[in-house]
Each structure stands twice: as structure tokens, then as C-alpha cells.
């Protein structure tokens, strides 16, 4: 085809040349070409003197005696295009900063699995290229550059793209407030900070610091995340260093909030105190171990944010390690001293660097676990007790389930929810069982799983870099064999567990040490003092600290648990709730209690539509449809995200809204009410303004065809499947009113 086009190109070129010779205007004709004149409407092509002069007999410019025909010119351009395509050569790649090695060689050869993965191979050929983010990490000098230079440039309010990716490791995202954009002006750049809050614990004094920081340097609110952490939005580049250092001086950190490392470790939102059930105390210790075992060892954090100073503050979550290290029980935050922290740190360094198995720990001067390039993508760990799935344990890269008899723990691997619209190679996945491990076996096993992802995870295609894709591609058994090759021994099959239940730990409970705790629903996790008669969340939480001496635990569903409440202070807390218009859990609609939404617009750069700001309205509309169908007291777990990345965990819900366009959502159904399976896509492009017409057939079929009244909506949808739901909806006539 290209040879034919080249011949056609030559023929047309000759014809154009012949016609063009007659079409060339003489110099005299060119001199009469109209001069452009400026009018109130801009530049015109009217000859000098205007239309009126022409009407009065002004001489027109001489026409060319011959012109190239339109058909000939079109053929010429088409032929020219194909001739150019035939000789096209891709331009040379843009050079990057610093030396770029042609390949990334894995630290240690593993058993050949090239036929399964496609991105690892035989010894000597076991190499990968690096995508841009991994190359940036390699060149960054262990998370330093170019961030140091960009932060020092105070003439700008933003940072470069490489620094944007690097800053995530330090716990911050650069964001653009879309609602403050002005045409022709620089974007309204600001920064979000995400704290590291293992198990969701936030002591009262730390909350007071965060409350002050968001008032002085942020947008006067805090955001509780779906992974039990606090976020502060609206921080300027000039204030970023001060805010991070202040957080560190208060005994917390932002390291591990984001980035291609181990993120915030989740656990049930209950106090892990003396007197609590032993299995929950074991969960607290394991969560703290995971939080510290995989901390990056680079000094970049203290150098950049604290000028290299060693702070005197104590990181409070490490107190859960005291019992594991010294056997002395778990001290309170007030009784956990710097000397205790130093003993714990020494033990964690010993565990981190212990040469367990084969090739797990690297002979590396800085990062014995992560190496030069850290992990291919973010890594998430959750820990819970058998039967308690308050944390969505199966959405984690590693899910740890402690047996109530303390004999050990089951480990599950390869969970994750992020996906991309239109790419079937990306998908949500629930974690698969890896095996059962005793207390002595658990730490080496966790290190081996991280090492497998470090060495074999995809570093070429970032969309497929999470551990779930490695587990899925290899298969459950082959991945277990890979981990066994690191451990140097076989893995025991998972133990049988109690039946799962979902508990959000709302309402009043006894902690076990003589104190009480109360779970309070905070709709979509926004801690703000709302105007116009809304709840005063910031003032309420501050009063709980100053008047009651309370501490807090952030829940996996964006709500909050007030802990350390003496029995005689229960009435005080309830009074404060009433004064600040905070509803007790009995007054909260079950749809609201079970709902969850990501922040989405206007700050998230990935959001394509609303989530947090729309969810209250969506709950009202869903409740109206259910009431219309007579489903007055039914509960459905609903979750919403403004994009397909799944931060609000919609794929595990009974009913999930996944943004796929402006005011448009994919509907996912079939998730388990106890969060043990991923749902499926029922329908896409469901418009917000007519969402009732998409939902009513689903609820009507559930009402009429469920096995009995105990069959939950998610279980029903999973049982009948998408084709049956779609067939029922096709013949169904909606009668619900569409909200205006």
C-alpha cells in the first residue's frame, strides 16, 4: 500500500507542478493583493478603501488565470501523508537527568516463572525496564532529589512532576483546587498531608495539635480516611515544612502515609489496652510490628523536614511492641518513655535485618528491605481477629487474621481495588489465602512476601504493579511456592476460622480496663464545624480532650471512636454530643451508618465526578426509593468513589457507585455484607439525575425474589447474577419519583 502511495504521490506531484505553473501570479498581480485593514472588529480582508470603494469602481485584483483543482490538491495531500508515513522514524527519546541503566537486574535469581508472569525470566535474563516513576526513585538518592531543590524554590507555589511523585513518600500530595482555577492564571496549588496512624490510634494531645494546624495552615477541617488516618488539606508550600515538623514533634509522622512503601496499617477500631481480649491485644502488637518493620531507613525525612535534628518526641504506637519485646505488658501513652522506645527500636532493627530465608534481606547500605527502588507500587497491610471483618481485611496486599486461641494467624495476599476504566487488565481483587503462621514464623513470612513483590512485581507497567497482579498471574499455588523459596521451607495451609461478621464498633462498649469507649458516626469522615445548624465536630472532639481526657481511634469507615472515658464521664460525653449536634448512633439512618465515600472533587486530581459531597443526597434518594417499595427497615451497604481507583472501597460493597463521567456512575452490586468478596459491574453510565430508574428495578427484584427476608441485597445480587438483574430491569416500569 505504501509503495502504491509513493507512485501516486509522484504522479500527483507532476500534475500539480504543471497546473501550478499557470497558477503562479505575476508580480503585478501580487502587488494588488488586498492590504489588511484594522476595524473595530479586528483585522479584515477587505481591500484598502473598503466595500464602499469597491462598489464605486475600485479596481479588483487580477485573478490567476489557472488554479489547482480541489480534487487534485486533496489527492496530493493524501499521497504526501502516506509517503511521509512510509519514511517515518520515531524521534530519539528525551534524555533524562542522570545516568539511566538499560535494565533493572533483580537482586537475586528465583525459580523460573517466566511462562506465567511475562516480566521475569531465566537466570541471567531476569531483567525489567523501569517506568518513569521507578527511574525517578532510582535517581533520587533515597527520596531526596529533586524534592530538596523544589522545596527551596520559594518563588513558585508548586513543585515539579518528579518531586510530586517523590513527595508521596514523605506523606504529602500536591493538589489543585479545581473550583479556584482562573482562566490564564496558575492553578491553585496546595498540599495535602496524610498522617501515619497505625491501628487508627490518635491520642488526645495529638488531636489538639492537628486541630490547631488545620485552623492556622489548612482549610479549617480534617479528613478521616478509609485507612484510619487523618488528612490535612489546604497547606501552602511555604508552610509545609513547619507543619510536618510540628506533627513529628507531637509524636506522629507522615512517613508511610503515601508512596511505594508500606502504608498505614489497619486494625479494628477498639482500644488494645490491658484487660482487652487477648486476641485484640495481639492484633495491636502485630499492627505495630508491621508499621515499624517496613519503615524506610533513609535519613531523607529528618534531613528535609527537621534539618537533621533527632527529635525528643516518642512515637506512641510503638508502646504496643513493649509486651512483644520485654514481656512487660502494654503501657499507656503517658507511661511510654523514650528509653522504652529505644529498646523497641533496637529490637525492630534486629528483626528487620535478620537474614531470614534466602534473599529476603538485601546486603544494602541504606534499605535492607526495600533496596534502591523501593516497592513497585503502594503496599497495604491489615490485621484483625478471626470473625471480625471491620477492616475489610481482604482488600489488603497482606491481610493477617489472628486466631482467638492465639495459636497463630492466617495470612492472605494479593488484595486490592484500584482499576482503570476500559482496561480489562486492571481489576479489583480479594486477597487469596497464603498460609498459617505461628508467632515465631510470622515476621519472616511477612518479609518474604514483601521481598517477592520487591523482586518480581511489575516495574514496567505501573497500572499492573500491585501485588494482586503478581498473585493473579502466577496463580495462588505458584505464588505460595515463590514465597516458600524465599523462606526456605514449606508453608502450612490456612487454619479454619470462625464465621465472618461485620462490626463498625459504633455505640458504647466496655474497654476491659475499667474505661468505656463510644463509636460515633461522622458522615463521610469530614471533621468540620459546620455552619447553619450542622454538627460541630472539631469543637466536640476538642472538648472531649479538654473536659474528659479522651483519646480517639479512627474507624475503617471514616467514623471515630472516643476512648479512655471513665464511667462517670459517660454523661459528660453525651452532653457534649447534644451541645455540638452530634447524633448518637441510634438516631443515624442505617444507610448513612454503612455508607462511605472518598473526597473526590474539588481536590483529587483523579476524580471525574463527585463522591463525598454527593453521598448525603444519594443516601436520601436511595432511602426514598426503598421506602416507595416498602423496604422501610432494610439495610444496604453503599459506597461511592469519584473515579475507578476505589479509595472508598465500592467494589466490596453491596451497592457501589464508581464515577465514570460527569454526574455519571458505574453501578457495582453483589459485594458481601460481611466484606468477603468483590462485587460485579451491573450497569455503566448511570446518570445522577435519573439514578432512581437504575436502582428501583434492583430493589424491586430483591424484594420479590429473595429466598427469605434474611437474604441481604448483596447476597441476592451475587446469587442471581448480572444477566438476570438486567433482564428483570428491561421489563420493569419504574414508578419512583425522580428527585429534583
Overview of the structural elements:
This protein is of the alpha+beta class and 740 residues long. It is built from 23 helices and 23 strands. A hairpin with a 5-residue loop joins strand 17 (551-554) and strand 18.
Please give the structural blueprint.
Blueprint lengths: L1 H22 L3 H5 L5 E3 L2 E3 L5 H6 L14 H17 L17 E2 L8 H4 L9 E2 L3 H8 L7 H6 L8 H7 L4 E5 L12 E6 L6 E2 L1 H14 L4 E3 L5 E6 L4 H10 L28 H16 L6 H7 L15 H5 L11 H16 L27 E5 L12 E5 L6 E5 L18 E6 L1 H18 L10 H8 L1 H12 L19 E4 L5 E5 L5 E2 L9 H12 L2 E4 L5 E6 L4 H10 L10 H4 L2 E2 L17 H14 L9 E4 L13 E7 L2 E6 L10 E8 L3 H15 L7 H19 L9
Parallel strand pairs: 10-11, 19-20, 20-21
Antiparallel strand pairs: 1-2, 3-4, 5-6, 6-9, 7-17, 8-9, 8-16, 11-12, 12-13, 14-15, 15-18, 17-18, 21-22, 22-23
Helix pairs in contact: 1-4, 9-18, 15-17, 16-17, 18-19, 21-22, 22-23
Strand-residue proportion? 5-15%
Estimated radius of gyration: 31 Å
* Oligomerization status of the protein chains: single chain
Largest sheet: 5 strands, antiparallel
Average pLDDT, all residues? 87
Keywords:
740 residues, 5-stranded antiparallel beta sheet, single chain, globular, alpha+beta
Summarize it.
By secondary structure, this protein is an alpha+beta fold.
Amino acid at each position: 500500500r505504501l509503495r502504491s502511495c509513493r507512485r501516486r504521490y509522484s504522479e500527483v506531484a507532476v500534475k500539480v507542478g504543471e497546473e501550478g505553473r499557470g497558477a503562479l501570479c505575476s508580480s503585478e498581480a501580487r502587488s494588488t493583493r488586498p492590504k489588511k485593514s484594522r476595524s473595530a472588529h479586528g483585522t479584515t480582508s477587505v481591500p484598502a478603501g473598503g466595500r464602499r470603494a469597491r462598489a464605486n469602481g475600485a479596481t479588483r485584483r487580477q485573478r490567476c488565470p489557472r488554479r489547482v483543482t480541489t480534487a487534485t490538491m486533496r489527492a496530493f495531500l493524501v499521497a504526501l501523508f502516506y509517503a511521509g508515513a512510509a519514511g517515518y522514524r520515531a524521534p530519539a527519546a528525551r534524555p533524562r537527568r542522570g545516568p539511566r541503566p538499560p535494565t533493572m537486574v533483580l537482586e537475586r535469581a528465583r525459580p523460573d516463572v517466566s511462562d506465567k508472569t511475562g516480566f521475569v525470566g531465566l537466570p541471567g535474563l531476569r531483567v525489567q525496564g523501569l517506568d518513569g516513576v521507578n527511574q525517578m526513585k532510582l535517581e533520587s538518592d533515597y527520596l531526596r532529589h529533586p524534592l530538596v531543590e523544589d522545596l527551596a524554590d520559594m518563588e513558585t507555589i508548586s513543585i515539579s512532576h518528579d518531586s510530586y511523585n517523590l513527595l508521596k513518600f514523605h506523606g504529602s500530595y500536591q493538589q489543585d483546587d479545581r473550583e479556584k482555577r482562573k482562566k490564564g492564571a496558575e492553578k491553585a496549588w496546595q498540599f495535602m498531608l496524610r498522617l501515619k496512624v497505625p491501628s487508627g490510634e490518635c491520642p488526645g494531645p495529638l488531636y489538639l495539635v492537628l486541630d490547631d494546624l488545620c485552623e492556622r495552615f489548612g482549610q479549617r477541617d480534617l479528613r478521616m480516611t478509609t485507612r484510619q488516618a487523618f488528612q490535612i488539606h489546604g497547606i501552602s508550600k511555604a508552610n509545609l515544612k513547619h507543619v510536618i515538623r510540628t506533627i513529628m514533634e507531637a509524636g506522629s509522622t507522615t512517613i508511610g502515609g503515601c508512596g511505594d512503601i508500606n502504608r498505614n496499617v489497619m486494625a479494628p477500631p477498639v482500644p488494645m489496652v490491658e484487660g482487652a481480649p487477648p486476641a485484640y491485644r495481639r492484633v495491636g502488637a502485630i499492627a505495630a510490628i508491621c508499621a515499624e518493620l517496613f519503615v524506610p531507613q533513609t535519613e531523607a525525612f529528618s534531613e528535609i523536614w527537621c534539618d537533621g535534628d533527632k527529635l525528643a518526641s516518642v512515637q506512641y504506637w510503638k508502646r504496643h511492641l513493649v509486651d512483644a519485646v520485654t514481656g512487660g505488658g502494654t503501657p499507656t501513652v503517658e507511661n511510654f518513655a523514650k528509653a522504652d522506645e529505644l529498646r523497641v527500636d533496637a529490637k525492630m532493627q534486629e528483626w528487620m535485618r535478620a537474614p531470614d530465608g534466602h534473599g529476603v534481606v538485601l546486603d544494602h547500605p541504606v534499605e535492607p528491605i526495600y533496596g534502591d527502588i523501593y516497592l513497585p507500587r503502594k503496599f497495604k497491610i491489615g490485621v484483625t481477629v478471626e470473625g471480625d471483618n471491620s477492616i475489610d481485611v481482604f482488600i489488603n496486599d497482606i491481610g493477617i487474621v489472628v486466631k482467638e486461641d492465639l495459636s497463630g494467624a492466617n495470612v492472605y495476599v494479593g488484595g486490592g481495588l484500584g482499576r482503570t476504566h476500559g482496561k480489562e487488565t486492571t481489576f479489583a481483587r480479594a486477597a487469596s489465602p497464603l498460609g498459617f503462621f505461628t508467632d515465631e514464623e510470622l515476621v519472616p513470612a511477612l518479609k518474604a512476601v514483601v521481598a517477592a513483590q520487591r523482586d518480581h512485581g511489575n516495574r514496567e507497567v505501573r497500572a499492573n504493579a500491585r501485588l494482586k497482579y503478581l498473585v493473579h498471574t502466577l496463580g495462588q499455588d505458584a505464588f505460595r511456592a515463590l514465597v516458600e523459596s524465599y523462606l526456605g521451607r514449606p508453608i502450612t495451609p490456612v487454619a479454619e476460622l470462625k464465621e465472618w461478621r461485620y462490626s463498625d464498633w459504633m455505640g458504647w462498649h466496655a474497654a476491659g480496663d475499667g474505661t468505656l469507649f463510644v463509636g460515633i458516626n461522622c458522615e463521610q469522615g469530614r471533621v468540620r464545624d459546620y455552619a447553619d445548624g450542622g454538627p460541630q465536630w472539631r469543637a466536640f472532639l476538642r472538648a472531649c480532650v479538654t473536659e474528659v481526657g479522651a483519646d480517639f481511634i479512627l474507624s475503617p469507615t471514616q467514623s471515630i471512636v472516643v476512648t479512655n472515658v471513665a464511667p462517670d464521664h459517660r454523661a459528660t460525653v453525651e452532653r457534649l454530643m447534644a451541645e455540638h449536634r452530634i447524633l448518637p448512633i441510634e438516631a443515624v439512618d442505617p444507610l448513612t451508618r454503612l455508607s462511605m465515600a472518598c473526597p473526590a472533587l474539588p481536590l483529587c486530581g483523579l476524580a471525574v465526578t463527585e463522591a463525598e459531597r454527593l453521598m448525603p443526597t444519594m443516601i436520601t434518594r436511595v432511602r426514598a426509593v426503598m421506602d416507595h417499595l416498602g423496604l422501610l427497615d432494610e439495610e444496604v451497604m453503599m459506597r461511592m468513589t469519584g473515579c475507578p481507583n476505589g479509595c472508598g472501597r465500592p467494589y466490596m460493597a453491596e451497592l457501589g457507585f464508581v464515577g465514570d463521567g460527569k454526574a455519571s456512575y458505574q453501578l457495582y452490586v453483589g459485594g458481601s455484607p460481611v466484606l468477603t468478596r468483590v462485587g460485579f459491574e451491573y450497569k455503566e453510565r448511570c446518570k445522577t439525575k435519573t439514578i432512581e430508574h437504575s436502582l428501583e428495578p434492583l430493589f424491586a427484584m430483591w424484594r420479590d425474589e429473595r429466598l427469605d427476608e434474611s437474604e441481604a441485597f448483596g447476597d441476592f445480587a451475587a446469587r442471581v447474577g448480572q444477566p438476570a438483574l438486567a433482564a428483570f430491569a428491561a421489563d420493569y416500569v419504574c414508578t419512583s419519583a425522580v428527585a429534583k
